[in-house]
Write a structure and sequence with these properties.
Layout lengths: L3 E9 L5 E10 L4 E5 L6 H9 L6 E6 L2 E2 L10 E5 L10 H11 L4 H14 L15 H13 L5 E5 L7 H18 L2 E6 L2 H7 L2 E6 L2 E6 L1 H6 L4 H6 L6 E4 H8 L8 E4 L5 E3 L8 E13 L4 E7 L2 E7 L10 E6 L4 E3 L18 E3 L2
Parallel strand pairs: 3-8, 3-9, 6-7, 7-8, 14-19
Antiparallel strand pairs: 1-2, 1-4, 4-5, 9-10, 11-12, 12-18, 13-17, 14-15, 14-17, 15-16
This protein binds adenosine-5'-triphosphate.
The site of adenosine-5'-triphosphate has 11 residues, from α1.
Length: about 350
Amino acid sequence: MAEIRLENVVKEFGGGEQAVKDISVTIKDGSFTILVGPSGCGKSTTLRMIAGLESQTSGNIWIDDKNVNNVPASKRDVAMVFQNYALYPTMTVRENIEFGLINRKVPKEERKKLIDEVVDIVDLRKHLDKKPDKLSGGQRQRVALARAMVKKPKLFILDEPLSNLDAKLRTQMRAELIQLHKRLGTTFVYVTHDQIEAMSMGTDIIIMDHGVVKQQGSPMEVYENPTNTFSASFIGTPPMNIIDRSNAVNVLQDINDTIQKVGIRPEHIHISTKPLNLAHCIELSATILSMETLGAETLYQVKTDMGVMNVRSFLTPLSNVEEYFISIPYEKLFAFDRNGDTIKAIVFDIKEEPVHVFN
Ligand code: ATP
């Protein structure tokens, strides 16, 4: 078990560019914390500094109450799992799992017991005598996990561990990692650029962009209460529609001066072939630019007086007609200021009767 604290952590690789800019976050003991953000945002560097593989330029890192600034990686009691698994090709599964224990001079009997404990958890008992090239991608990933687990670390660090797997296996391994985390109760810190992985696995998400933390919270907190346009559009598929004030005023008319952008999630927009006349909604006419039928849901891209918007609908795909209507509930609108920060106190001027804005 471990709580990790980063205080004003900065990483410069030279040339004056900061890969990580003054980050202060707490990773809760026992959490499954996901560092998520676009490529180059500094998430792997942050993870590597926690593991001790990279030293910070300034700032402090604590694991539990111990300042680990000068503690080498090997002494941090951290186990790591990477994208490329880093298995030894000439060793069997058993030898791969055992290797770290031999290095730590764990006696043979104890090693056998520890391996015995983990192989069933990762379902590798049948494969103990195989070499990695005889295993599937998912099985190799499980060997890497077993090798980490057998050390009984107080912290697991995982850097994009599923990115080499195909989509189906990734979904399966996601579920396995959630169960593994529950079973072990150990803190997991996991890096990914994939917001679906972040939402589905994390108990906590840290959203990063350009070396800074944009938001930290549970998946539902960041989905329901994004604190800025970056988090709002990073979490959710398709991303939130962010409408510039110049387009929003056409429809919302007397909106507060501080509102520079308005947001609405695609799944909160209703789409229909006839006006719906829903209370507390703005109704707009729309034309369909594209339509993707995915089975359980349909994604539309529509053109309206508020600009082009993505709509996600779980109803039967609509028939092909000239004119469509979208309804936007006022209570689902987000407002952002000129810095892109969410304005919490703003209540839109909600009209009881439906507001129609038809051409
Ligand atoms: P990705 O998802 O592509 O791995 P990331 O969010 O993990 O990206 P980092 O790998 O942490 O990002 O990189 C952050 C920034 O630091 C990038 O601009 C990268 O080029 C730079 N960087 C990372 N490692 C080094 C290094 N060893 N030397 C110089 N610059 C580096």
